[in-house]
Amino acid sequence: MKTDILLSELQFKAVRSSGAGGQNVNKVSSKVVLTFNLNTSKAFSEEEIELLSHKLATKLTADAMLILNCDEDRSQLRNKEIVTKRFLKLIQNALIVPKKRKPTKIPRSVIEKRIKAKRNLSEIKQNRRKPDL
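RESULT FIELD:
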């Protein structure tokens, strides 16, 4: 992942934030919307794009656009920093390839314990029955 190329491909748009803000709410555009097109990105290889599109499938639009927004702070600059950090963290987590699971054999003691418990339960149920005369 080439972070400098990746950051240059990001597009930011300032929008009016929802919620309380007093007299400032209708004048200041402090909410920041980040958009990133995965298909046109030059920061990733083909394999990385495949992995990202698979892992971020629920967050991508139909034309492979990732849209993140932030209106946590009253400052537009601070919101831009927050959403950029969030984007980079999301991409880094999506690029992690999980380790292949090695199937392990069930230990003999575990099998014996399970069979013993079954036998014990069977004896308890047999003791509840009416005796054969």
